């Protein structure tokens, strides 16, 4: 809110010192939401004219008024022209959210807007896992507890820590202010009914520009293989969680006056009906760094700007088919935000193509050119449309056929291996315990390879502590001979399997086995490289 104290009580604002000078100031500019200080004479004129609705008296003040309508306000000694501070050609959106708003607005949304020539500023008040009651408490007590993440017109990003809701509201002339419930309570109507109207009232009181519009971000149901305890609230059923989210979404405009419902949740659910399947999350609840986030960003763009179908932007790490499917999921969600639109007939071209080398990191939560991040360690999780080292999309996918026990980041931070790994890759890994009785068990499936070609797989396995060596085999058209790898303090050694021919269906499988019958071993994988063999 921008304050303007104007009139006989604040003549210094205009460089005036007398009422005579005021009379010469024929058109003084004020803005919607400003506080206007009138003289006693001006107040009498305003009252005599029937208390024009352009102004609203501010309680417990003397001659202070809130400017709330456009137009001109005329007095004998002065005229005020009232303008809209939001009418500046830039769309400015503030989200009072958490990591789910981070997934929705902080990545591809600005890129989509830039592609179409829309000037956009995004503010995200971030606090991980924050529900509405948390925001309400912080608002009432003006607690400086948020990371205020801002994307400016040119795409530059900043983060101001220890920010309050009031500070973020005051930072810009926001066109849209958006609310969001925490994911665990996203399908809990009673919590939204209790807290959202109060939070809205706080925002409206502290941001009195009447042309502002309000929005609600509908988030998504968890992946069916999510392991978070929050999923128990929905009996660990994705469909139940989605339907409860929809029921909450239907009620929002009865609780507060919203102009936009951002149907990210429905867009994700639409996408899950496609050949991508239930692979829109990176660890069961936050969105996949590529297609998940792009689908949510597409829902934001289509809701706010429209005409997404003609927007040519595509993230470098998605195929054209994947990007087109994500956009279609979003477009349909905006049209029908309360029901699932079937995309099972949407075809994504999975024909094998040649590539240089594909690099996959395990358990590292990052987007980095030349690498594909596989974050979630649970069975059936799949990362498709992998990009090669030149960032060219391929049809290749990686899928887990068994659960790993967990993911960790206790690997070596500095390495000297053929991978040329940054520390974010080398220090992160999936691991699983191997008992003495275990036969080779396939954990990783690599698919959409060309069965007529041969491939080379290179694996890196590294701990910063002593571990028992274990065995790795690769199965395809034939089963390879097991190779031993010792992850203990490993910073240099990798394991290479050459001239591997996939199955007739274009698949290779990586299997782990304990080397000894005397003690337990732990299999670990930090990184994987897939390349076409030179002599195939």
UniProtKB/TrEMBL annotation:
<feature type="signal peptide">
    <location>
        <begin position="1"/>
        <end position="23"/>
    </location>
</feature>
<dbReference type="InterPro" id="IPR036514">
    <property type="entry name" value="SGNH_hydro_sf"/>
</dbReference>
<keyword id="KW-0732">Signal</keyword>
<protein>
    <submittedName>
        <fullName>DUF4886 domain-containing protein</fullName>
    </submittedName>
</protein>
<dbReference type="InterPro" id="IPR032616">
    <property type="entry name" value="DUF4886"/>
</dbReference>
<feature type="domain" description="DUF4886">
    <location>
        <begin position="92"/>
        <end position="331"/>
    </location>
</feature>
<dbReference type="Pfam" id="PF16227">
    <property type="entry name" value="DUF4886"/>
</dbReference>
<dbReference type="GO" id="GO:0016788">
    <property type="term" value="F:hydrolase activity, acting on ester bonds"/>
</dbReference>
């Amino acid at each position: 809110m921008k304050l303007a104290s104007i009139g006989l009580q604040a003549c210094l604002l205009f460089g005036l010192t007398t009422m005579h000078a005021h009379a010469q100031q024929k058109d003084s500019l004020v803005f919607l939401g400003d506080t206007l200080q009138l003289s006693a004479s001006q107040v009498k004129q305003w009252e005599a004219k029937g208390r024009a609705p352009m102004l609203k008296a501010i309680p417990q003040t003397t001659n202070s008024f809130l400017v709330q309508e456009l137009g001109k306000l005329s007095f004998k000694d002065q005229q005020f022209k009232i303008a809209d501070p939001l009418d500046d050609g830039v769309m400015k959106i503030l989200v009072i959210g958490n990591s789910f708003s981070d997934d929705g607005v902080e990545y591809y949304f600005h890129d989509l807007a830039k592609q179409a020539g829309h000037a956009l500023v995004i503010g995200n008040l971030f606090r991980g896992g924050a529900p509405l009651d948390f925001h309400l408490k912080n608002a009432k007590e003006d607690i400086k507890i948020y990371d205020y993440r801002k994307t400016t017109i040119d795409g530059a990003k900043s983060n101001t820590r220890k920010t309050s809701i009031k500070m973020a509201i005051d930072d810009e002339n926001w066109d849209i202010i958006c609310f969001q419930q925490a994911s665990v309570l996203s399908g809990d109507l009673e919590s939204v009914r209790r807290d959202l109207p109060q939070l809205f009232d706080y925002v409206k009181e502290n941001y009195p520009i009447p042309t502002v519009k309000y929005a609600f971000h509908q988030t998504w149901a968890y992946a069916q293989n999510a392991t978070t305890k929050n999923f128990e609230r929905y009996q660990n059923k994705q469909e139940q969680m989605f339907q409860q989210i929809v029921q909450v979404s239907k009620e929002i405009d009865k609780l507060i006056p919203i102009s936009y419902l951002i149907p990210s949740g429905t867009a994700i659910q639409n996408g899950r009906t496609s050949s991508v399947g239930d692979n829109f999350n990176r660890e069961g609840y936050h969105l996949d760094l590529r297609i998940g986030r792009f689908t949510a960003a597409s829902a934001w763009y289509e809701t706010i700007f429209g005409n997404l179908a003609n927007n040519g932007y595509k993230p470098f790490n998605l195929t054209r088919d994947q990007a087109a499917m994500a956009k279609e999921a979003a477009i349909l969600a905006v049209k029908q935000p309360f029901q699932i639109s079937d995309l099972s007939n949407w075809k994504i071209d999975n024909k094998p193509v040649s590539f240089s080398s594909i690099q996959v990191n395990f358990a590292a939560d990052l987007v980095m050119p030349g690498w594909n991040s596989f974050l979630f360690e649970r069975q059936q999780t799949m990362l498709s449309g992998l990009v090669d080292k030149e960032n060219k999309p391929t049809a290749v996918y990686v899928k887990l056929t068994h659960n790993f026990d967990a993911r960790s980041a206790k690997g070596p931070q500095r390495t000297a291996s053929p991978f040329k790994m940054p520390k974010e890759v080398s220090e992160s890994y999936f691991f699983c315990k191997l008992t003495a009785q275990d036969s080779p068990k396939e954990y990783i499936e690599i698919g959409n390879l060309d069965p007529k070609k041969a491939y080379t797989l290179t694996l890196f396995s590294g701990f910063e502590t002593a571990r028992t060596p274990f065995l790795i085999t690769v199965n395809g058209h034939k089963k390879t001979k097991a190779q031993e790898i010792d992850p203990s303090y490993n910073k240099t050694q990798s394991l290479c399997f050459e001239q591997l021919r996939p199955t007739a269906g274009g698949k290779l499988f990586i299997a782990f086995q304990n080397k000894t019958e005397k003690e337990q071993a732990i299999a670990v994988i930090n990184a994987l490289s897939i390349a076409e063999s030179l002599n195939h």
